[in-house]
Write a structure and sequence with these properties.
This protein is of the alpha+beta class and about 650 residues long. It catalyses: DNA(n) + a 2'-deoxyribonucleoside 5'-triphosphate = DNA(n+1) + diphosphate.
Length: about 650
């Protein structure tokens, strides 16, 4: 279907925004698939949002509007129902019918419906998951972004909405401040406004555009999903269901411990700020923490411009500042950089984690929640936000003896323990399997440290860390210049190091060439699980990363599904965070015998991945446990 045909279909669609006899006739018994969307007061669960229509606060996103799209004879029907109207009630009724329902971000919309008592029946499908499988190289899978390349003629609807939204939000933010409108603790004036403030006709048009685009996306890729990616899609959809349960479970947060940590960290942050501000003001009276001012201060204190360059740009990002310290800078510049990095680390921990999570825990009986995207990246690895609990930073870049204050506040529920099942050296094991390097595979099967084994094979027994860096540099497609900077070598030394590595492990080069050949032949590479990665041939080095990280992500998801099935069947506990290659399971405290049985069963679920076992690889799983806090987990032997 061409863009012009899509536009004609949109313009000829029957729009229903008011209840009348025509609406009653068309909505009585819709046939076929139904694309659905909710318009809500917010995006975060367990977080207050204001419902304008009834002038009340909601603890979770409230669906103040519902939109639908379905076929009727040779035309589409677009429906918008706002809360309190007959059409809204009809939309709810239609959601309860057995028709196939299509959503874009099914996890969110179905959770909104569940939380607000809206029954949804029939098979459910998710075009967001489909899009990420079929159009894997796209960065942005929002409906508006997808409409730009599917049908640019109708993609301007969000731009128009954004202009209205900007004006309305600004107006209400000023009103909140001027009239001193009450806000829940931790919320600012800008948080008051949401889509329920938009006029009926504006939000209705926007929402109907959403479901129309969703319908077109489904038409375009549903057949390809069914014929080429059915097993992969079914697995990803099941993962969405598991992740939804994990989100709803949440994690227990030690409020008192968090407040103690905040009291310790705030003075440290203030001291770091005072230190580098004092040094910064030697270069400029109006010094602030903004990057241009920081760069000017660094230059004044003796840091060379080349030391601050990343490619062609000058930056004060953390890895560049680390590099400056390694290369050597004047004493005052060193003090400035260390204080700056400390300040940033403390500020991030306090403002991203400690304070928001403590506030959220106080609202929710000591439980905190995050939002998990099970297939966020191009390789299909998960991500989380609000906040990101998959990459919790260390408290500071230099004081390794300090425990992690964020992890120290995550504690088991009363009478429970948490088990952490970690896949050991998964990326290297999967890489060895894909590259047919049986010597590395055998070392893995024997329980050896792969990086040390490879260092010994080269004759660099005391250079494990360098070999580890090369291994991950190869996996991530890192260039030789970047590796030279990481190793603090000259470019000549780095090239020689890489030559010896490649000479010893010829399978690496062979695998890289194989990936390039497959890209030239097919336009993509495909992992053991049926997921394809479309990489430009001139960026073939990225294919190795896609296959290995993507394969690991798929293997972990397979394991997670098997663990979830076991946990549900035996009612032994609840899954917590899925962290890349680590599965967290909270259970009531167990006897030694029951603990051993539980761990053996979970290990079996995570290690026995058919697509790997059938090729001779059984993953190694390490187990840790805590009855106190995440920071205090300890390894246990099974």
């Amino acid at each position: 279907m061409t863009g012009e045909e899509i536009l004609q279909q949109f313009e000829s669609a029957i729009t229903i925004t008011e209840w009348d006899k025509e609406a009653e006739r068309l909505l009585k018994k819709p046939r076929g698939i139904i694309c659905c969307d909710t318009e809500t007061t917010g995006l975060l669960f367990h977080t207050p949002s204001y419902f304008k229509d009834e002038e009340r606060w909601c603890q979770n996103p409230f669906p103040f509007g519902l939109s639908l799209c379905f076929e009727h004879e040779d035309r589409l029907v677009l429906v918008w129902g706002r809360y309190g109207s007959k059409l809204y009630d009809e939309c709810k009724r239609i959601l309860s019918l057995p028709n196939i329902k299509i959503w874009h971000n099914m996890k969110y919309d179905l959770r909104v419906c569940k939380t607000n008592g809206i029954e949804v029946r029939g098979p459910q499908h998710d075009t967001l998951t489909m899009s990420r499988i079929v159009w894997d190289r796209r960065k942005d899978h929002r409906l508006q972004a997808l409409s730009e390349f599917i049908c640019p003629e109708i993609s301007a609807w969000e731009e128009e909405l954004n202009e209205i939204k900007k004006r309305e939000k600004s107006k209400w933010t000023r009103t909140v401040k001027k009239e001193n409108i009450w806000l829940p603790e931790g919320m600012e004036a800008k948080d008051f406004w949401n889509y329920s403030f938009l006029p009926h006709e504006v939000i209705g048009t926007y929402s109907m555009c959403d479901v129309f685009v969703d319908f077109i996306i489904y038409q375009k890729i549903a057949h390809e999903i069914s014929s080429e990616f059915r097993d992969l899609y079914v697995r990803e959809r099941k993962i969405v269901e598991v992740v939804t349960k994990i989100e709803e479970t949440g994690l227990r947060w030690d409020i008192e411990r968090a407040k103690e940590e905040i009291a310790v960290l705030e003075p440290k942050m203030d001291k770091a700020l005072e230190t580098f501000t004092k040094l910064g003001k030697e270069s400029q009276e109006d010094f602030t923490t903004h990057p241009p001012k920081v760069i000017k201060a660094l230059k004044y204190l003796g840091v060379k411009e080349n030391q601050l360059k990343d490619g062609g740009r000058i930056t004060t990002e953390e890895d560049i500042l680390h590099r400056c310290l390694k290369e050597g800078v004047p004493k005052k510049a060193e003090q400035f950089i260390k204080a700056l990095m400390d300040y940033r680390a403390y500020a991030k921990i306090l403002n991203t984690y400690m304070k928001p999570l403590t506030l959220q825990a106080e609202r929710n009986d000591g439980i905190v929640y995050t939002t998990i995207n099970p297939t966020d990246t191009r390789t299909g690895r998960p991500a989380s936000r609000d906040p990101n609990l998959l990459n919790i930073p260390k408290p500071t870049v230099k004081k390794k003896e300090e425990s992690n204050p964020v992890r120290a506040c995550f504690i088991p529920r009363e009478g429970c323990a948490i088990y952490y099942f970690d896949v050991s050296q998964q990326e290297m094991a999967v890489f060895a399997l894909m590259a047919d390097d049986y010597s590395i595979l055998d070392a893995y099967k024997e329980g050896k440290d792969i990086h040390q084994y490879m260092a010994d094979q080269i004759g660099w027994g005391d250079k494990r860390d360098i070999v580890k860096n090369i291994n991950f540099g190869v996996l991530y497609g890192t260039g030789i210049k970047h590796m030279a900077k990481t190793w603090r070598m000259t470019l000549t030394e780095a090239k020689e190091t890489m030559r010896i590595y490649m000479q010893t492990f010829g399978s690496v080069k062979t695998f890289q060439e194989k990936c390039k050949w497959e890209l030239q032949r097919n336009g993509y590479v495909e992992d053991f699980f049926g997921r394809r990665y479309h990489v430009p041939v001139n960026q073939a080095y990225k294919a190795v990363n896609s296959l290995v990280q993507g394969g690991c992500a798929q293997a972990f998801k397979m394991g997670l599904l098997q663990v979830d099935k076991y946990v549900e069947k035996h009612n032994v506990g609840k899954l917590l965070l899925p962290i890349y290659d680590e599965c967290q399971l909270e259970t009531p405290k167990l006897s030694k015998a029951d603990e051993s049985q539980l761990c053996r069963n979970v290990i079996k679920c995570m290690s026995d991945i058919p697509q790997l076992v059938n090729r001779g690889l059984k993953l190694r799983i390490d187990v840790e446990k805590t009855e106190t806090s995440w920071a205090c987990k300890e390894k246990i032997e099974i």
